[in-house]
Amino acid sequence: MADPKYNVIFQILRHRIEQGEYKFLSLLPSENALALEFSCTRNTVRKALALLAGQGHILTMQGRGVQVIYRRRPVPSRPPSTFLLGGIESLKEAADRNGFSLSTRMLSLEESYVDRELAKRSGMAVGEVVLRLRRLRLLNDVPLILDENVFLKSIVPSLNKTIVESSIYAHLEHELGVTVGSATRTVTVEPATEDDVELLHLGGLGCIVAVTSSTFDTNGLLFEYTVSRHSPIGFEFNTTARRLPASI
Amino acid sequence: MADPKYNVIFQILRHRIEQGEYKFLSLLPSENALALEFSCTRNTVRKALALLAGQGHILTMQGRGVQVIYRRRPVPSRPPSTFLLGGIESLKEAADRNGFSLSTRMLSLEESYVDRELAKRSGMAVGEVVLRLRRLRLLNDVPLILDENVFLKSIVPSLNKTIVESSIYAHLEHELGVTVGSATRTVTVEPATEDDVELLHLGGLGCIVAVTSSTFDTNGLLFEYTVSRHSPIGFEFNTTARRLPASI
DNA sequence: CAGTGGTCTAGACCACGGA
DNA sequence: CCGTGGTCTAGACCACTGA
């Protein structure tokens, strides 16, 4: 099964919602009707609906129906977030999807070890051999993000300028066969350092947004720890919250 | 069914993980074993596991098992986020849970209408009658958040200083019978205004974190629009991302 | 009352991983 | 090969909404 049925249904329904076929505040066809249309059981439809709810596209109401709560957003002035929709998407993918040009400049690349301090922050074991990488990322030629990546050398044995300035994630996925399983992220705001001021376009603001991220591959190995220092200019992070038991 | 079985299982498993009974990087019992333990089917266990995965506590690996990826976090210096875990939690609840004192000072409260500009931002209809409210919120007596709430008057007919300075959400839920269905939030960073500088403890930083939020009740009515201006001092926002199809 | 979404069971088949 | 998680079906019963 290349693409699960619930995922196909999810894509179709999302498309209908985003194209306005199902309008803001209107009700979707009932679960039974959708099950009939897609020749599947209610359970399968419900999984597709759960995905839509997770994106903040719909709201299910017991006894009444499923309401569309998606509103078209104004076109963003830069990719709204590296991490849209609770999913996992690389910055390059996000830029492509929104029609922005992304370029990357490698600042440094070196082999190193995990010390106690990094171990505490990242969750990696003390003494692990890692590659440390610093990159400057420009959106539409404006330097907006300073990335500091740490990769486990056992997973990512080597990197070079070419890989690092195109897309590391494409390299990981296609060349190394690494796929991301889960990532936990923390967003904080910090005073800009001299490096930040020198390298990033901060628009006069003396702070940056730090997105710190620990990433597990699908084998359950914590292989990446990254701190992305974002210029606050145009930074946007979107998320949807809902009452807990509705997320099934 | 007061509390669904999958939710009970979820709570139990989460407790075991957070107490270290199931350790970081170890495997959970198999789904079949858990189904046996809790006298239910695999499907029900899987719903509980989906909730744990949604919190970044576990990572499921096909053919291998379910790995614990939860790490104990250092005690935060203030409640890490109003909106932990993709769920919905009021600031008061978050403060209580983390043992922080929260106090609130009402700055203004007035009746108003939704104009075109607010309609565009919030998604409310032009001309709706609303209550507009400004509050200063202090954590451990430090003024850290400036809240600007807009409530639909048809849902929240009246407010007063007492309600507004204790917990609006408790009032909504217990007195008015309003429950939250879904909320979409956007996090941005903005230059501090004069008001911000005067009212908030900014620690010398010239910016604030704006968390903008549109909230639907369980009847599918967009009844609240809020902009919370947070001091960047200690601001922290946590989230978990995972490959999409795993969220079922 | 009929129709909606919410929960749960029983059982099937598949894809993947490791011994 | 067996055990793991991933998908899906068929059908049941419940809780809630609105006519």
Structure description:
- Chains A, B: Pfam families: GntR, UTRA.
- Chains A, B: Residues 3-71 form the HTH gntR-type domain.
- Chains A, B: Keywords: DNA-binding, Transcription, Transcription regulation.
- Chains A, B: InterPro entries: Bact_HTH_transcr_reg, Chorismate_lyase_/UTRA_dom_sf, Tscrpt_reg_HTH_GntR, UTRA, WH-like_DNA-bd_sf, WH_DNA-bd_sf.
- The structure is a homodimer of 248-residue chains.
- Chain A has 248 residues and is an alpha+beta fold.
- Chain A has two domains: 5-72, Arc Repressor Mutant, subunit A (Orthogonal Bundle); 84-230, Chorismate lyase (3-Layer(aba) Sandwich).
- In chain A, 27% of the residues lie in helices and 32% in strands.
- Chain A has eight helices and nine strands.
- Chain A has helices at residues 5-18, 31-37, 42-54, 91-98, 116-122, 161-165, 168-175, 194-199, and strands at residues 58-61, 65-68, 102-113, 129-139, 142-152, 180-191, 207-217, 222-230, 237-242.
- Chain A has a six-stranded antiparallel beta sheet.
- In chain A, a hairpin with a 3-residue loop joins strand 1 and strand 2.
- In chain A, helix 2 crosses helix 3.
- The longest helix of chain A has 14 residues, at 5-18.
- The first copy, chain A, is globular and about 60 Å long.
- Chain A starts with a helix and ends in a 6-residue tail after the last strand.
- In chain A, 36% of the residues are buried.
- Chains A and B meet through helix 3, strand 6, strand 7 and strand 9 of A and helix 3, strand 6, strand 7 and strand 9 of B.
- Strand 9 (237-242) of chain A pairs antiparallel with strand 6 (180-191) of chain B.
